[in-house]
Design goal:
four-stranded antiparallel beta sheet; 3 helices; globular; 4 strands; alpha+beta
């Protein structure tokens, strides 16, 4: 797989990921450019408590969207 990493805001911790060659609609992200999470599959179940805190702070829309998972 070929990934393109980018940040939505310069000071963000989270890298969003374009999975080149795959279909659009996946929401992939990473904290370290090594482990890639799928937003709909992995949030918050596969993440550490600290990762969830960072994600929620940087992405309030998604935190609210998935509030029933907390």
């Amino acid at each position: 797989m070929t990934y393109k990493f980018y940040k939505k805001r310069k000071n963000d911790t989270i890298w969003w990921v374009d999975n080149l060659g795959r279909y659009k609609g996946e929401h992939l992200f990473s904290f370290d450019k090594k482990k890639v999470y799928n937003l709909f599959r992995d949030y918050p179940y596969s993440m550490t408590k600290k990762e969830v805190e960072i994600f929620d702070m940087e992405n309030p829309f998604w935190a609210d969207f998935f509030s029933n998972r907390q």
